[in-house]
C-alpha cells in the first residue's frame, strides 16, 4: 500500500478500489472534501496503472473552428459572436480544406472541428466540408461537432438526430467531440448556458451515436458556480451512460477560464482543484479507459504533474485553439510532438502516439533515469505546494 494512503483517512476507499470495487457518489464526495491530495493521487494512480500500465499518450492533431457566429448567448462563453461583432469569423469549405492540407503535410492524424450554431449556413455546408476533407486524405480521422451542434444540424436538415448522424457519418464523420457537457444540473446549466441543450439531450445525442457504432469523448466544465455535489452528479450520469453503451473513449475535465464572459468568477480553478478533480474522475469513472489532462486549460507543466494523479493522456499538438484562449487561457496555441514526448518521458511514462480512438500508432522507448530525474526536479516545488495547499 502506498505510504500516503497507509496513514490517510481515505484508506478504506483505497482498499475498495484496490479490490476492484466501484466507489459510490458518497465516496466521491468524501474525496472532494478531503485535503489529502497525495492520497487521492495515489488512489487515482492505482486505477491508471491498472488500465494503462506505464504508458501515457498524445495525438498529433489540428483544431479548426469553422465559425464563431452563434445564435446562442451562453453566459460562460467567450468564443461566440454575433454577425455585428468585429471579431466574428466564418471559414469557407475551401479555407478549411487548405488548413487541413497544410496540417496533413506535417503528419497530423486527426482534425478536431467545432463551431458556433451559425445562423445561416445550410446543412449542405457541413456535409460538403466532411466530404471535401475525406477526399483530401482518407487517413485523416474527422472528430467533429458537439452534441448541441448535432441538434442544430438536425433542425437544419429537418431530420431526426439519428438520421442526421447517419448522413454526417456517410459524409466522413469518424467521431463526435465531447464539448458542451458543461455541468448537467439544470439550475447550473440555466445560469451559465441558458438556451443550450439539456443534460438529457446531450446524453441522448451521444447515446444515439454509440448505438450506431460510433465513439465519442465527453467533458465536464468545472470551477465556476457549480457545487462539488454537482460535479459528482455529472460524473454519475456519464458513468451510467458508459455502463449502457461503452461508447466513450475518454473523459476530459476542463478547468473554467473566467475572462471575457458574464459569469462572476474572479479566478480560474487552482492547481489543487484541477488535480483533485482529475484524480477523482479517474477513480469514479471506472468504466472509462482514458482520462485526458487538457494542457490548453491547465498548462503543460500541470498536465505533466497530472500524469501522477490519474491522467494517462495529455491531448495533442492542436496548432490553433480559439475557445479557451478567447476566455483568457495563457497557454501556447500549440505544442510540438517533441515537447509532448519530452514531458511524458520526464514524468516516467512511456510516450505513445495515439489516434482519435486512443489506439496506439507509435510506442516510444522507455524514459531514461536522467530524464525522469530532470522532470522530478522541475516539478517538485509545484507538486509539494499543491499537495499541502
From TrEMBL:
<dbReference type="InterPro" id="IPR007197">
    <property type="entry name" value="rSAM"/>
</dbReference>
<dbReference type="InterPro" id="IPR013785">
    <property type="entry name" value="Aldolase_TIM"/>
</dbReference>
<feature type="domain" description="Radical SAM core">
    <location>
        <begin position="56"/>
        <end position="286"/>
    </location>
</feature>
<keyword id="KW-0949">S-adenosyl-L-methionine</keyword>
<keyword id="KW-0474">Menaquinone biosynthesis</keyword>
<dbReference type="InterPro" id="IPR058240">
    <property type="entry name" value="rSAM_sf"/>
</dbReference>
<feature type="binding site">
    <location>
        <position position="76"/>
    </location>
    <ligand>
        <name>S-adenosyl-L-methionine</name>
    </ligand>
</feature>
<comment type="function">
    <text>Radical SAM enzyme that catalyzes the addition of the adenosyl radical to the double bond of 3-[(1-carboxyvinyl)oxy]benzoate, leading to aminodeoxyfutalosine (AFL), a key intermediate in the formation of menaquinone (MK, vitamin K2) from chorismate.</text>
</comment>
<feature type="binding site">
    <location>
        <position position="77"/>
    </location>
    <ligand>
        <name>[4Fe-4S] cluster</name>
    </ligand>
</feature>
<keyword id="KW-0411">Iron-sulfur</keyword>
<feature type="binding site">
    <location>
        <position position="70"/>
    </location>
    <ligand>
        <name>[4Fe-4S] cluster</name>
    </ligand>
</feature>
<dbReference type="Pfam" id="PF19288">
    <property type="entry name" value="CofH_C"/>
</dbReference>
<feature type="binding site">
    <location>
        <position position="74"/>
    </location>
    <ligand>
        <name>[4Fe-4S] cluster</name>
    </ligand>
</feature>
<dbReference type="GO" id="GO:0005506">
    <property type="term" value="F:iron ion binding"/>
</dbReference>
<protein>
    <recommendedName>
        <fullName>Aminodeoxyfutalosine synthase</fullName>
        <ecNumber>2.5.1.120</ecNumber>
    </recommendedName>
</protein>
<keyword id="KW-0479">Metal-binding</keyword>
<dbReference type="InterPro" id="IPR020050">
    <property type="entry name" value="FO_synthase_su2"/>
</dbReference>
<dbReference type="GO" id="GO:0102573">
    <property type="term" value="F:aminodeoxyfutalosine synthase activity"/>
</dbReference>
<dbReference type="InterPro" id="IPR022432">
    <property type="entry name" value="MqnE"/>
</dbReference>
<dbReference type="GO" id="GO:0009234">
    <property type="term" value="P:menaquinone biosynthetic process"/>
</dbReference>
<dbReference type="InterPro" id="IPR034405">
    <property type="entry name" value="F420"/>
</dbReference>
<comment type="pathway">
    <text>Quinol/quinone metabolism; menaquinone biosynthesis.</text>
</comment>
<keyword id="KW-0808">Transferase</keyword>
<dbReference type="Pfam" id="PF04055">
    <property type="entry name" value="Radical_SAM"/>
</dbReference>
<dbReference type="GO" id="GO:0044689">
    <property type="term" value="F:7,8-didemethyl-8-hydroxy-5-deazariboflavin synthase activity"/>
</dbReference>
<dbReference type="InterPro" id="IPR006638">
    <property type="entry name" value="Elp3/MiaA/NifB-like_rSAM"/>
</dbReference>
<keyword id="KW-0004">4Fe-4S</keyword>
<feature type="binding site">
    <location>
        <position position="182"/>
    </location>
    <ligand>
        <name>S-adenosyl-L-methionine</name>
    </ligand>
</feature>
<dbReference type="GO" id="GO:0051539">
    <property type="term" value="F:4 iron, 4 sulfur cluster binding"/>
</dbReference>
<dbReference type="InterPro" id="IPR045567">
    <property type="entry name" value="CofH/MnqC-like_C"/>
</dbReference>
<keyword id="KW-0408">Iron</keyword>
<comment type="similarity">
    <text>Belongs to the radical SAM superfamily. MqnE family.</text>
</comment>
Amino acid at each position: 500500500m502506498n505510504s500516503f494512503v497507509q496513514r490517510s483517512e481515505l484508506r478504506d476507499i483505497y482498499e475498495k478500489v484496490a479490490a476492484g470495487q466501484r466507489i459510490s457518489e458518497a465516496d466521491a464526495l468524501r474525496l472532494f472534501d478531503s485535503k489529502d491530495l497525495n492520497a487521492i493521487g495515489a488512489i487515482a494512480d492505482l486505477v491508471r496503472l491498472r488500465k494503462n500500465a506505464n504508458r501515457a499518450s498524445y495525438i498529433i492533431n489540428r483544431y479548426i473552428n469553422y465559425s464563431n457566429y452563434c445564435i446562442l448567448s451562453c453566459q460562460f462563453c467567450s468564443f461566440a459572436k454575433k454577425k455585428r461583432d468585429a471579431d466574428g469569423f466564418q471559414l469557407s469549405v475551401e479555407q478549411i480544406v487548405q488548413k487541413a492540407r497544410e496540417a496533413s503535410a506535417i503528419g497530423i492524424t486527426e482534425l478536431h472541428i467545432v463551431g458556433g450554431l451559425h445562423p445561416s449556413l445550410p446543412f449542405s455546408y457541413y456535409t460538403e466540408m466532411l466530404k471535401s476533407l475525406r477526399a483530401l486524405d482518407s487517413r485523416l480521422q474527422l472528430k467533429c461537432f458537439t452534441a448541441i451542434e448535432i441538434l442544430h444540424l438536425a433542425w437544419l436538415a429537418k431530420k431526426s438526430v439519428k438520421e442526421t448522424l447517419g448522413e454526417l457519418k456517410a459524409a466522413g464523420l469518424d467521431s463526435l467531440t465531447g464539448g458542451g457537457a458543461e455541468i448537467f444540473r439544470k439550475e447550473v446549466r440555466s445560469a451559465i448556458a441558458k438556451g443550450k441543450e439539456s443534460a438529457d439531450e446531450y446524453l441522448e445525442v451521444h447515446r444515439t451515436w454509440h448505438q450506431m457504432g460510433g465513439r465519442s469523448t465527453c467533458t465536464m466544465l468545472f470551477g465556476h458556480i457549480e457545487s462539488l455535489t454537482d460535479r459528482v452528479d455529472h460524473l454519475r450520469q456519464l458513468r451510467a451512460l458508459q455502463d449502457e453503451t461503452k461508447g466513450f473513449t475518454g473523459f476530459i475535465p476542463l478547468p473554467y477560464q473566467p475572462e471575457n464572459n458574464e459569469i462572476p468568477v474572479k479566478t480560474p480553478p487552482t492547481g489543487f482543484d484541477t488535480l483533485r478533480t482529475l484524480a477523482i474522475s479517474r477513480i469514479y469513472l471506472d468504466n472509462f479507459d482514458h482520462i485526458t489532462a487538457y494542457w490548453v486549460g491547465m498548462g503543460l507543466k500541470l498536465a505533466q504533474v497530472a500524469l501522477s494523479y490519474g491522467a494517462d493522456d495529455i491531448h495533442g499538438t492542436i496548432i490553433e485553439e480559439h475557445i479557451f484562449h478567447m476566455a483568457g487561457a495563457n497557454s501556447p496555441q500549440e505544442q510540438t510532438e517533441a515537447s509532448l514526448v519530452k514531458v511524458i518521458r520526464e514524468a516516467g511514462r512511456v510516450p505513445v502516439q495515439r489516434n482519435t480512438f486512443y489506439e496506439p500508432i507509435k510506442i516510444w522507448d522507455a524514459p531514461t533515469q536522467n530524464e525522469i530525474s530532470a522532470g522530478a526536479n522541475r516539478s517538485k516545488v509545484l507538486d509539494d505546494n499543491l499537495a499541502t495547499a
